[in-house]
């Protein structure tokens, strides 16, 4: 999105995406407004509620088509930037490569069309509100799919280990994850953990992460938020290699993964490779981390 902003500085940038992405999209400084668009199971929406004249430029960021190509073609854009697909031979875009990191892939799409884009340009500005739990190690046990959701009892073991070592711990959960948080809290001392249920407003969530000592989560959006605020993190990977979905290289963001055959990132049950990660590995990654402040 920042590549598009730099490439088209005089244009209004509209992101068609699920409504819950409006706040982080606007925080990026690269999006002027969000056009609400979603479909069950991450499918291509049946249509877009586009008002006004056809867009001058449309960019397909939903896979490599052809359904998403057709969706945008119905808007009659002046130009359509997209990956090539045999189902839409009229689009002369770059070839889709499956074995490629997501950040690199989408920047490569723009560069093919002559628009420079930096896959490392992922930082977000720190919100102008105070953190609700400054200096805490933030633990987020949830994930969109079961295959990327490490068992609650293992997160509970990590929380207890952090408390024993003197860390302040904050536990976060999104809408519908109260039961999951309760299972993680089983065995934790009463009042020993700051708990944030139901999904914090984005500015408070961003402030919590920006002021955290570290973030522990599965391979989900929260892990990317830790990268966006430059907070030390430990991310647990299972069905998808961190080489494809993981954090930028370096020592600040630690990716735990036991290599093996790829799994279903949207499956219902925890991935076997994710289950190979043990709580002591997570605690060791935090204790060995050179940038995580000691209690």
UniProtKB/TrEMBL annotation:
The cross-references to InterPro entries, in alphabetical order and at most eight, read:
Glyco_trans_9, LPS_LOS_Heptosyltrfase
What is any Pfam family matched here? Glyco_transf_9
- Presence of the UniProt keyword Phosphoprotein in the record: no
Determine the domain of life of the protein's source. Bacteria
Region annotation Disordered: where it falls in the sequence: 254-273
Keywords for the protein's UniProt record, in alphabetical order: Glycosyltransferase, Transferase
Q: What is the recorded name of this protein?
A: Glycosyltransferase family 9 protein
Q: What is the lineage of its organism?
A: Bacteria, Bacillati, Actinomycetota, Actinomycetes, Kitasatosporales
């Amino acid at each position: 999105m920042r590549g598009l902003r730099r490439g088209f500085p005089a244009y209004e940038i509209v992101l068609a995406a699920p409504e819950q992405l409006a706040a982080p999209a606007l925080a990026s400084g690269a999006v002027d407004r969000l056009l609400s668009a979603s479909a069950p199971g991450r499918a291509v929406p049946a249509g877009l509620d586009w008002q006004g004249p056809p867009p001058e430029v449309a960019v397909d960021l939903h896979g490599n088509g052809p359904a998403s190509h057709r969706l945008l073609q119905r808007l009659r854009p002046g130009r359509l930037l997209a990956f090539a697909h045999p189902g839409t031979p009229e689009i002369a875009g770059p070839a889709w490569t499956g074995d490629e990191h997501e950040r690199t892939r989408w920047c490569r799409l723009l560069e093919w069309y002559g628009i420079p884009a930096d896959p490392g340009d992922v930082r977000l500005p720190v919100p102008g509100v105070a953190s609700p739990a400054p200096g805490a190690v933030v633990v987020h046990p949830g994930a969109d799919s079961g295959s990327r959701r490490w068992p609650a009892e293992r997160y509970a073991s990590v929380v207890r280990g952090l408390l024993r070592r003197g860390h302040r711990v904050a536990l976060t959960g999104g809408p519908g994850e109260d039961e999951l948080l309760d299972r993680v809290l089983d065995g934790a001392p009463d009042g020993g953990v700051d708990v944030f249920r139901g999904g914090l407003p984005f500015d408070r969530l961003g402030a919590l992460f920006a002021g955290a000592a570290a973030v522990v989560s599965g391979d989900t959006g929260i892990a990317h938020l830790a990268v966006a605020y430059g907070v030390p993190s430990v991310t647990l990977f299972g069905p998808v290699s961190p080489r494809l979905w993981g954090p930028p290289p370096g020592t600040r963001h630690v990716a735990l993964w036991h290599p093996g055959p790829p799994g279903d990132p949207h499956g219902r049950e925890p991935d076997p490779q994710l289950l190979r990660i043990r709580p002591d590995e997570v605690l060791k990654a935090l204790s060995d981390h050179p940038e995580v402040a000691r209690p």
